[in-house]
Design brief:
This protein folds into 2 domains: 11-131 and 167-193, NAD(P)-binding Rossmann-like Domain (Rossmann fold, 3-Layer(aba) Sandwich); 139-165, no CATH class. Helix content is 41%, strand content 10%. It contains 5 helices and 4 strands; from the N terminus they run H-E-H-E-H-E-H-H-E. It has helices at residues 11-25, 48-75, 101-119, 148-157, 169-178, and strands at 30-33, 81-85, 125-131, 190-193. The protein has a 4-stranded parallel β-sheet with strand order 1-2-3-4, with helices on both faces. It starts with 10 loop residues before the first helix and ends in a 7-residue tail after the last strand.
Length: 200
């Protein structure tokens, strides 16, 4: 499996990404869309432009990529795998001004269910991975030894039964499962990779 990493802001971008993969490898069997951003603010202070920016990054890009890749997976005879990245915030609210982020990730969960139903007859499996806080450029501040990051992290850890935040490696097993033949009868699901955060 070889990754083609680019950003899809428009339908043309999405088609170009799929076209590059087809030109290089002749077919597309797996689509993973890991697109996300946040702009935390109380709803009365969150601009419409900020809300749209979060929705575009978190929902539009996934929808565009699915729309671009679907016809090719179908024409190949199906059996494709699509994995979108959701979040525990697709299920849970947040008091710190997440009225853009939470709805955007709920939309990913809904998109997964809709596509699973739409593409099931083509044996294309569509699922989501929903992590809690994982180390990334967006969350690196929460891993700081001191300061606001430490305080936020320690408060968060009180609700994670496994007692730590996530590392990128923690996502790999679930991702490999979802794109493998072992998951051929798993579709329309959102799998929480959260150290037990949503269990409590």
């Amino acid at each position: 499996m070889v990754a083609v990493e680019r950003r899809a802001d428009t339908q043309g971008d999405a088609e170009a990404i799929v076209g590059a993969a087809l030109a290089a490898y002749g077919r597309v069997d797996v689509l993973v869309v890991a697109s996300g951003t946040n702009d935390a603010a109380p709803i009365e202070a969150l601009s419409v432009e900020s809300w749209e920016r979060v929705m575009d990054a978190n929902v539009r890009a996934s929808w565009l990529m699915a729309r671009a890749v679907g016809p090719h997976m179908i024409s190949q005879g199906g059996n494709g795998k699509v994995v979108l990245i959701s979040s525990t915030r697709g299920k849970l609210g947040h008091p710190a001004g997440y009225t853009a982020y939470c709805p955007s990730k709920s939309a990913i969960d809904g998109l997964v269910r809709a596509l699973a139903c739409e593409w099931g007859r083509h044996r294309i499996c569509v699922n989501a991975i929903a992590p809690t806080v994982f180390r990334s450029r967006l969350t690196e501040w929460m891993f700081a030894a001191e300061g606001p990051g430490r305080q936020t992290r320690e408060a968060m850890l009180q609700r994670i039964p496994l007692g730590r935040l996530g590392e990128p490696e923690d996502l790999m097993g679930v991702l490999l499962y979802l794109v493998s033949g072992a998951a051929d009868f798993c579709t329309g699901q959102t799998l929480y990779v959260d150290g037990g955060y949503t269990a409590g």
